[in-house]
Amino acid sequence: MAIFKRVLTLASVLGAALAQGSTAYTDEGIIFQGLQEPTHGVSYGFVLPPTTATGATAQEFIGEIVAPVANQWVGVALGGQMADNLLLVAWPNANEIVFSPRYATGYIQPTPYAGPTITTLKQSFNSTHWSWVYRCQNCTTWSGGSFDTNSAPVFAWAISLTAVFDPSDPTSDFNEHDDFGFWGEITANAHSDDYNTYLNGGTVTSTPPTTTTTPPTTTSSSPTSTPSAPLASPTPYDYIVVGAGPGGLVTADRLSQAGKKVLLLERGGPSTGETGGRDVPPWANGTSLTRYDIPGEFQAMFGSSGPSYWFCSDINTFAGCLVGGGSSINGGLYWYPTDLDFSTDRGWPSSWSNHDQYTQALIQRLPSNDNTSPDGVRYLEEVFPVMSDILTPMGFQNITLNSNPNFKDHAFGYSAYNFQNGKRWGPVATYLQTAQPRSNFKMELYTVVTSVARNGSTITGVQTNNTAIGPNGFIPLNPNGRVILSAGSFGTPRILFQSGIGPSDMISLVQQNAEANAFLPPASDFIDLPVGFNVQDNPSINLMFTHPSINAYDNWANIWSDPVPADAAQYLKDQTGVFAMSSPRVNFWRATSGTDGITRYAQGTVRPGFDSVTTSYPYNASQVFSITTYLSTGVTSRGRVGLTSSELGAGALTNPWFTDPVDKSTIITVLEEIISAAAKVPNLTLITPDNTTTLTDYVNNYPTSSLGSNHWVGSCSIGQVVDENALVMNTTNLFVVDASIVPALMTGNPQGAIMSAAEQAVARILALPGGP
Ligand SMILES: Cc1cc2nc3c(=O)[nH]c(=O)nc-3n(C[C@H](O)[C@H](O)[C@H](O)COP(=O)(O)OP(=O)(O)OC[C@H]3O[C@@H](n4cnc5c(N)ncnc54)[C@H](O)[C@@H]3O)c2cc1C
Ligand SMILES: *[C@@H]1O[C@H](CO)[C@@H](O)[C@H](O)[C@H]1NC(C)=O
Ligand SMILES: *[C@@H]1O[C@H](CO)[C@@H](O)[C@H](O)[C@H]1NC(C)=O
Ligand SMILES: *[C@@H]1O[C@H](CO)[C@@H](O)[C@H](O)[C@H]1NC(C)=O
Ligand SMILES: *[C@@H]1O[C@H](CO)[C@@H](O)[C@H](O)[C@H]1NC(C)=O
Ligand SMILES: *[C@@H]1O[C@H](CO)[C@@H](O)[C@H](O)[C@H]1NC(C)=O
Ligand SMILES: *[C@@H]1O[C@H](CO)[C@@H](O)[C@H](O)[C@H]1NC(C)=O
Ligand SMILES: *[C@@H]1O[C@H](CO)[C@@H](O)[C@H](O)[C@H]1NC(C)=O
Ligand SMILES: *[C@@H]1O[C@H](CO)[C@@H](O)[C@H](O)[C@H]1NC(C)=O
Ligand SMILES: *[C@@H]1O[C@H](CO)[C@@H](O)[C@H](O)[C@H]1NC(C)=O
Ligand SMILES: *[C@@H]1O[C@H](CO)[C@@H](O)[C@H](O)[C@H]1NC(C)=O
């Protein structure tokens, strides 16, 4: 069973722990071997007697805790977890450090523990810190355990920003810690020939009077206070949500709102300034307006360097690996889903036909906005009248698109965004902000989930690369706890494969990877589900035109390093102007019937500027705009995603575009209609394809790398990989809530529909019996 395999591999914790092991430092004239923990500024130091010591002397040590005053109590576990280890807890009370050895048999309030003899050697207090040097005798072994005094055992620390219930009482109960972590205490380097000198120094010091407190010898009865979660981890959670993209943020917020203890794990780092991101363009230096905050930087998103984590280097297509996932790096187009998007025709279970209430819940949290500059002025809108001249004669109506989501045939209007206040907004500025202050919610960044650990069909926790939050990176679930994968269309399948869930060819690639193979369950527990199949992404084709009225905005060149000074200054002043919106200005939709009789929807997205122009005739680059035409709901082509090799990179295995030729002939029909309508607009010139290339040749020769739209859905389709409650089939407590459960392309760019689907999925998960 995976869970036993994991226990065996705990030996390798040593290597991992050493990577963040203790170091030597000097304080109070003593050379300690210990951890100077940076987040809370607390030092945990240890000195052991010489290795030649025997008897009782070999079972003691000198320790210290130096803590900024915000830390109201501090604990250490002389073993890598809270349960069944000797714990030492200390806090300041008036001008005295109160301390208490503790012990817990599980993740409950640790009770005072008789056995150790603890003596204060030095204590000091000033306006910023409290500090305590102590002698701990009979402390290297305890009931059922010990630590290795000549190696690098895993120790754990915990801090609380809230005082114990009765600071004057060493046996006081206290609430759960606010934070904790692990380190490798290199006891092999902690022995000192000066040990006795240090002990004596403790009695001749000139620092405040030494007090000796008798260690409590009573064992208190069962806790009367709120049961406490682990003092020194690994903390078990009710719900572990993997991935802080649109799916994961909605899910984690709703679960924590319902009072569940939620851990949100994200492999990348911060994005917007609000989340701690500092990836600021040079023209905004000194502000916290990052590339992820400034909508107008979208066209430069993948064209300038940033922190290494954000673009998912192990996925061979564009994706965002940071707080917000794709929503922090995408174009921001935001559409309320249509009824058809959640219909049985599109592959949804019939029980999802009540979907509108969930879309309304989303809209309440995150309304759309088609005029995103806070001054109300529309900037760079020259494409709108030109598009109106093309589309109105074709019978299109100019509407406020999100006011009538179901009107998607011959409709056009202003592009709608999830931006507010002139900034990228989305789930990061809404759902994450309500989750974050809750004490039952915690987000850990830079934490890659590689697999879920399971005992047969029941998930017991997640395996991560973060050894600071769980021994060997393992984080357990509470009894009846649940894991929700929201790692996106590529990330979620990869975790499933590494957990022995998916087609055998994918699991076999995992088996060929020695590191990942170690965490696979036994083959008899593999679950063969069509993970990675049934995938769709919109095929899309660009048309490029020139028109004398257009301002191509220098094709968005230099917006990172050297933007139009007046526009940059205006945005810095009050977040208004060109930079308050990303590049699209107009969207349109029409339904069309293919030669197979199937209705397919086509979407147009229109923006000033262009990708690549192919004409050999001269053209004025300052007057170019692009119409990107995608085929959406009704598309019949399907592809496959998965692992590209035993290195476990992820990507498309079969491209999902135009595998059905009727998709291609349908988009050609739509493009032909646009081109012939455009030909009637004075001074409008089609430059790509130009009049030397037929449209069919243009589409046939279109570079595959440009055909997609980054709107991948379906790799864990509802009804095929997950059931109507988003539960992974043949498991009891593993769920998927992200783009991958969406069984068919949505009518518009998908993030709105994904978040709305997450609203329904998380409501179902909370309602499902048997949970935490
Ligand atoms: C360039 C680009 C432009 C786009 N433009 C638009 C647009 O304008 N409008 C629109 O609606 N949609 C757009 N999209 C698509 C949209 O962003 C995605 O459909 C959406 O973000 C998917 O949401 P998700 O929650 O399923 O996954 P994601 O957004 O991919 O989020 C998954 C998260 O999980 C994390 N993760 C992955 N694996 C692990 C792991 N093993 N451990 C821990 N964390 C992990 C990732 O870092 C990421 O944060 C665009 C996408 C791209 C790439
Ligand atoms: C040492 O502690 C143990 C409990 O861990 C206790 O049983 C034992 O009596 C103690 N020994 C001494 C000498 O105090
Ligand atoms: C307060 O105490 C801490 C820890 O002992 C020490 O580092 C710091 O310098 C002290 N500050 C002052 C102002 O003495
Ligand atoms: C940003 O400003 C700081 C000083 O305020 C300067 O040191 C730094 O070089 C500037 N960075 C850029 C990219 O201009
Ligand atoms: C389109 O409709 C909007 C209101 O939704 C209006 O402001 C705009 O002037 C209209 N444009 C055209 C060209 O009809
Ligand atoms: C885990 O992986 C992430 C993403 O690659 C990385 O940022 C982080 O540093 C890794 N953590 C450890 C402890 O190796
Ligand atoms: C695994 O599950 C079985 C029941 O399916 C149970 O008997 C067994 O104790 C579990 N093992 C572990 C290690 O939890
Ligand atoms: C899933 O469970 C069903 C019974 O509930 C069983 O028939 C099927 O074989 C299982 N599938 C896999 C892949 O384990
Ligand atoms: C190109 O277009 C710009 C903007 O409309 C215009 O100012 C310029 O004169 C044009 N150049 C030529 C050569 O027509
Ligand atoms: C087309 O452009 C010419 C000059 O290039 C101009 O004189 C004419 O008014 C334009 N026609 C329209 C309908 O915009
Ligand atoms: C093709 O378009 C160019 C300008 O883009 C024009 O000069 C040329 O006359 C056109 N040729 C035909 C056959 O229409």
UniProtKB/TrEMBL annotation:
Pfam families: CDH-cyt (PF16010), GMC_oxred_C (PF05199), GMC_oxred_N (PF00732), NAD_binding_8 (PF13450). Residues 200-231 are annotated as: Disordered. Its cofactor is FAD. Residues 1-19 form the signal peptide. Coiled coil: none annotated. Keywords: FAD, Flavoprotein, Signal. One of its GO terms (molecular function) is flavin adenine dinucleotide binding. It comes from the Eukaryota. InterPro entries: Cellobiose_DH-like_cyt, DOMON_domain, FAD/NAD-bd_sf, GMC_Oxidoreductase_CD, GMC_OxRdtase_N, GMC_OxRtase_C. Residues 205-231 have a biased composition (Low complexity). Residues 320-343, 488-502 form the Glucose-methanol-choline oxidoreductase N-terminal domain. Belongs to the GMC oxidoreductase family. This is Cellobiose dehydrogenase. It comes from Schizopora paradoxa.
